[in-house]
Amino acid sequence: MTVDIIMPQMGESVAEGTILKWLVNEGDYVEKEQPLVEISTDKIDTEIPSPSAGIIKKILYKEGAVLAVQTVIAQIEEGEIKAQAGTVKKEQEEKERIEISETAAIVGEREMHEKRYSPLVKKLAKEYNVSLTEIKGSGEFGRVTKKDIMEYISSKREITASKEKIVKEAERETLIPLHPKRKITAERMALSRQTAALVTTVFEVDMTPVTKYRELNREAMKREGIHLTYLPFIAFAVVQALKEHVALNSSWTDNGILQKNYINLGIAVALEDGLVVPVIKDADKKDMFQLAREIQEIAVNARSKKLKPDDVRGGTFTITNYGVNGSLFGTPLILQPQSAILGVGAVVKRPVILGDADAIAVRSMVYLSLSFDHRVMDGAHADAFLHKVKDILETWGESLYEQKKPNPPGGYGGVW
């Protein structure tokens, strides 16, 4: 029986994917769940596993191909050819054994050649970064002498000088090919700016109460396997504010504003080749510590390319934390079809004036930037939402939002 391998849909707004690298060849035997191919979209880079054991019958598209989702990209033959698959597997194992033997032989041959070189010649080769296998020896039995290596170095210098001159003239500019994710991200972000009536509002928030809470509970959280950063506190505050200000958890449609009665919180994660936004489903049903654990898990999975298609689907609101790079504030672009995105700047200590007392104190401050779609809401709605987030964070130790829990057996003092 022939099994089709298809280009999966990695998110509701994703219409295509790019084949980055085939991990198998036609005729190879593969086990069930064995990775077959690396693919990329603007949402995620991942490996597609084999749905069953069998032989790769046909690879239909080459690396670099950009294909619509649900396109058949390869076929596996299973069922009646299981015996044949076993034979192919044995052939592959034999091929690997031969390759290992050949490699060992090559190494042995290199070791023999090494014995032909004197310590002085080896020292000169290392000093001038020269491969001795490229030099024809004039000594007895073809041994490479000091004279041979110095003449070789002299000739190489003349060639290198000429090449360097050409390179300096030709490589004043470098064209860097676009990674598929960067290309698709560029298209999506340009489309977002063209689609939404984008406005950004910025609030300043005193994070000192949260800072004190983190310091009090940092070690206890480590024992629970949770790295207690500022982000879980902000995520929790955002979720509480979204419950009251539902316009920010909505989408624009031609038929009206589509209000989401659930909160799926997207957390942007920076990768080497761009951003990916995994989603915490039903974030409104989770406390701050559950959010902290899930934020930690999705970041690890994103960077190790272990995210699944469902992990990047269904986001209703997104947080992007550019403060980890030292940025104070920015104007993030909305991920369509969402209507808002919150940017988190760096938390920095600086002197501020406290209330009406005109007293100056050093506080931990952060800028929160909210970009929103003016078609869906007005500035007053956006500011009311940010005000709620600010109030929760600035009164953390005075409110029920600190999510108090009973100490475990042999407790560690304070609150979670």
UniProtKB/TrEMBL annotation:
Cofactors (names): (R)-lipoate
EC number in record: 2.3.1.-
Record's keyword terms, sorted: Acyltransferase, Lipoyl, Transferase
Xref: InterPro entries: 2-oxoA_DH_lipoyl-BS (IPR003016), 2-oxoacid_DH_actylTfrase (IPR001078), 2-oxoacid_DH_E2_comp (IPR050743), Biotin_lipoyl (IPR000089), CAT-like_dom_sf (IPR023213), E3-bd_dom_sf (IPR036625), PSBD (IPR004167), Single_hybrid_motif (IPR011053)
Leader sequence residues: none
Single annotated GO MF: lipoic acid binding
Highest taxon of source: Bacteria
Broadest EC class assigned to this enzyme: transferase
Cellular compartments per GO CC: cytoplasm
UniProt record similarity statement: Belongs to the 2-oxoacid dehydrogenase family.
SUBUNIT field: Forms a 24-polypeptide structural core with octahedral symmetry.
Protein name stated in the entry: Dihydrolipoamide acetyltransferase component of pyruvate dehydrogenase complex
